Amino acid sequence: MDSWGVLDLSNAIIGVRDDSGRKKDKKLTIEKLPDKVLLHIFSYLSHKEICQMARICKKWRQIAYDSKLWKNVSLRPEISGLHVNSLEFLLHLVSVRFGPSLRYIELPIELITHTVLHELANKCPNLTHMLLDFSTAMQLHDFSELQAFPTKLKYMCICLSEVIFMEGFMRKIYNFINGLEILHLLGTYEKVEEEEEEIYEVINVHKLKSATPNLRVINLYGINFVDDSHIDAFSSNCIQLECLAVNYCSKVTGSTLKTLFQRSRRLKCLLMNGTSLKSEYLMQVEWEKCSLLELDITATDLSTESLQDMLIRLPGLRFLSAGQLNGFNDSVLRAWVEQGNPRNLVALDLDSSDNLSEDAIYKFLCKHGHQLWGLGLSGMTHITDSLWQTVLPILSNAKILIMGTQERLGVNILVDQLMDSIARNCPIAERLELRWDPENLRFSDKSQKAIDIIRVKCLKLRCLSLSDGRYYEIVKANFERADRMTVVRTLTSCRVSNYYLLLNYKDLIFN
Fold this sequence. Notes:
It holds the Pfam family F-box-like. The chain is α/β, with parallel strands linked by helices and 511 residues long.
């Protein structure tokens, strides 16, 4: 529904009674709605739409500029934020429109100046979340006069540049950020041949860790210079650490993991997708003594022996993502069931685990499928709808299901029966992804009935991702006719993940 649809009350009719008790009709226009109601309606609009509403009349302008509508502000237009033409206008916005109500702000490189940061520190005392985007920077502003910075920040996200050194800026803010609980450092994560590029350590992690002793969640994403020494640095000073993510930091080998768990007794979540973990380092970790509940080792090339050793010794894993691992085979799964403890598991992703047989997966799900909230068995040509049809009655608690492969198959997927089975067996499903190639999907003229069933039975369904094709168009049209406009999406615009089930998922979100 667009902004005009939200506000279109001009033709609303209400019934009132006159003095004689007879009912008569009275037209209610939007001008007669209380300001509080209008303010609530405006809260559903984006800031760009709110600015458009401000042009309608003086009353709407006054409501549009209410600071309650400006608690979370993005000033990065390329990521759905507002475009600010000048620093002077931004300083005006901070003073007049944002004020004490501001809780979250995103700033692009051109707006990160000492005057803006001073104004935010002075006029926005309740600012707790900040994103600073330096990713496109070729040169920093002069921060030699920076004397003030928001002091109540709990969450800070810094998008790093590959070539700009941050120390001149960072040493000015160290004294103001010791209350941080959540830190995101985002690299560029570009696929470039190492011999063709020179890697710079653009931010001094060793100094940063000394200024942030209260961190609970650390996310180092796709940073080409981050290695095991940086993990060791954070673990030496952040005793509150609960969640550490180093996804796509290719220099991380795991050599300091043993020390990490010895120091960080509260660490419950470790995400290492796309790192260069070495099996011998993981086998040195005292897994049986740690409190780890959530683990992502996708695409890390670990050996079968190290995987068995780790899963047997981990006391109570609830979340495991172990896709794209040649070493994850039937013997690993069998050893985990027989000698380990998968009884607490609620989320499992085995994407592209080609060395796992259909029979081994079936036996595991027969025993533990009933407890799973999320299951990913995608990217495997030998796992088709026949296995899913067999195990879906077991997956009654599933909220997230990821199935299929985009590789063309020699068999057809009977998608009508599959959708019907999902609807009847997984009533609390929230997110589904079917990755099969459109050419492999077989459906009939009665497809609408199966789609109707899943739409009616799975009322909590938020996302249904499909490969772009005729079947996608049919499903999308069906949901749109029922006013569920945002549920059906293509794989190119939306991918489903078990990450939604992480205990710290909300803290790990970055834009």
